[in-house]
Amino acid sequence: MRLRRCLIVPVIVASLAFPVAHAAELQQTRDGVTLAYQDTSGSTAADVRDRIIATFFATYPRERRDFHPSAPSTVRIVMDPSYDGVAYVGEKDQSATITINPRWLEKHPNDTDLVTHEAMHIVQGYPGYASEQAPSWLVEGIADFARDHYGVDNGAGGWALPTQVKPEHKVDSGYRVTGAFLKWGEAAHPGLVKALDAALRSGRYTPSLWKQHTGEDLPTLWDAYVAQRGGTARGA
Ligand SMILES: [Zn+2]
Fold first, then answer.
1. What are φ and ψ of residue 146, in 5° steps?
2. Over the stretch 135-189, which tens digit does the pLDDT of each residue have?
3. 110 CA distance to ligand 1 centroid (A)?
């Protein structure tokens, strides 16, 4: 009897008093999208888990609606302590799955919009990666363009697209550098990013698309962007 009380009481006290991490398997459906959240090792604090889930539902359905309405309607988020990157997207058990390193979130608990970037990779669903038909710099640039556009709390995570072009920035730097360029290009040529995304998804992407949609080839467009941001153009 005494032993029994000792086992039970501290658990109850701890769960009431602290935002402790605990193993979780949750499933929720909103806006026609089902999310299965899995953290079998109990690696992530409940408040971070709740913000990850809220960020997913605030962003993935909109990204999906705007870019690829037939993208998967069921998505899994898996917390995997054995993964030592930040996060990635892949298929697990035939479900589109976002795998996240919980230690990254422990160190950067406000970087919850990493889900917005990864969710866009599910929307993209391109047939390849790091190929001529799907260059990785452009795939990652579009994912960061989406993080900027749809993100819930990028500021809290200390995340923003660069407003200045540094000498080391190139059009194919990818991620935020390319994301900022895409945002600039989209403002001048509405529909540009959607056109690029659609071409990438169907395997029809070629560099000539830039000229087709903007009137300029890619190097010329990048030079115009750099000049507008007060940088030095490629050919200078
Ligand atoms: Zn990515």
1. -70, -40
2. 999 999 999 999 999 999 999 999 999 999 999 999 999 999 999 999 999 999 9
3. 18
Tell me phi and psi for residue 209, to 5 degrees.
-60, -30
Residues 88-145 pLDDT 10s:
999 887 899 999 999 999 999 999 999 999 999 999 999 989 899 999 999 999 999 9
Report CA(200)–ligand 1 centroid distance (Å): 15
Ion ligand 1: residues, Cβ under 5 Å = 140, 143
88 alpha carbon to ligand 1 midpoint, in Å? Answer: 7
* Domain positions in the chain: 20-125, 127-236
Residue 118 C-alpha to ligand 1 middle, in angstroms? 6
Which CATH number is associated with domain 20-125? Answer: 3.30.2010.30
Strands 24-30, 33-39: parallel, antiparallel or unpaired by DSSP?
antiparallel
Is 123 strand, coil or helix? Answer: helix
